[in-house]
Amino acid sequence: MARWSSYNIFAPQEDGAALCFNARTGAILRLDAARYAEILREEDLDDDVFALFFEQGIIVEDDTDEIALIEARHEEARGDPSSLSITIELTEACNFRCAYCYQAHAKEHLTEEAERRIGLFLARKLDELSHLHINWFGGEPLTRLPVMRRLATRLAAQARESDCRVTQHVTTNGYLLTPDVAAELRELGIGNVQITLDGARAAHDASRPLASGLGSYERVLAGCRNVIDAGMELLVRINLTRLNCDTVEELLDDLIAHAITPDKAAIHVVRAVDHGNLGEGPASICFRNAEFAERWGRILESVAQRGFGTPSVSPIAYNCPFDLEQAVMIGRDASLRQCSSTDGVIAQIGPDGEEVKAGGAYQRIKTHRPTDDAGCRSCRFLPLCMGGCAYLRERGEEACNPERYIMPQLVTLYARQSSPQETERIGGNDG
């Protein structure tokens, strides 16, 4: 016997047709109006249609344990010892004063002792590694470019001695990204750069001013262009708030006018989060999750209209790299943090490169599984969310990804941007 998968999502279209998407397998089938009506009426399927639905995981055997299949994919990724991702906080200092930032901007930098311990920490793992990914973080990491240069050269050489492939990424506000700096980052092996632009000029300058209070928009926009000219991949992040949500279209047009085009950059729109540091007044600039999703959906339509990609609706093995055993956030003092969204310490790198002082929070975070939560376990969006944001869950807030609120719209957007080979049209008996 067979049954419908627990992870089917239908996205009705204006002409009465529908997209049938399976969140566990990632399959998308286009159903014409007649076929979709037959499914809604629970009529028997033709043999060839049944066979296709079964092949794509839209229909499964009665005894198929889909939860077990999702858990297996997660465990395979979670325990993979061949890949290590390290995010290194070069400094807590920053030349910006962003409205929603959780950091105190102390003039504290990565110490030489922390550098030594990071090298020893890596040495302990290299024998099993085939891939090392380094993300340079701050504060503003480019205020410590000489340290980045020294440590990047050292860690890359250390990895190469063990035949370990190295990739590098930098998260920066972009203000210091002159043509010369961009060229140096490329020479250091940086392949991908994330820069935040929070809306058009006035909105961005209100959200992300310099420490002096002056605006930063023009310099950041120039930094984006310099990344592209240096031959690196560019990710433009937009932290959506009530201050900038109506200016994103203007920003997109400005990016294109500056030759920051869909073939050269990706757009990543996320919800700005109150980290508990904003107080009653400023906290109101942040959307709640469902409210953000509604705005986000409209913005993604504008993103797609201009040719930029929209979020993939493919199933994932984990929500965030920091969910994995082989992903760590290293603070300037060689502390281990939960992730890059918090400076809360959960463990320490010891004098010999070992992980020490790993208390209850560390164990709780690193051993949590997406299906530990009953709500997640029963949710049809689980394969796309994998338990949501662990940081928000630790804070007692809604951890769910916003996709759940607008999934039919996201499926439709994704299908529009997919090639015909990536979806298949299924007609009804009279289609």
Structure description:
The protein is an alpha/beta fold and 431 residues long. The protein folds into two domains: 84 residues, no CATH class; 321 residues, Aldolase class I (TIM Barrel, Alpha-Beta Barrel). Helix content is 35%, strand content 19%. It is built from 15 helices and 16 strands. It has a ten-stranded mixed beta sheet. The chain has a four-stranded mixed beta sheet with strand order 2-3-4-16. The protein has a two-stranded antiparallel sheet with strand order 1-5. Helix 5 links the parallel strand 7 and strand 8. Helix 4 packs parallel to helix 5 and helix 10 packs parallel to helix 15. The longest helix has 17 residues. It is globular. The two termini are 28 Å apart. The relative contact order is 0.15. The model has no long low-confidence stretch (mean pLDDT 92).
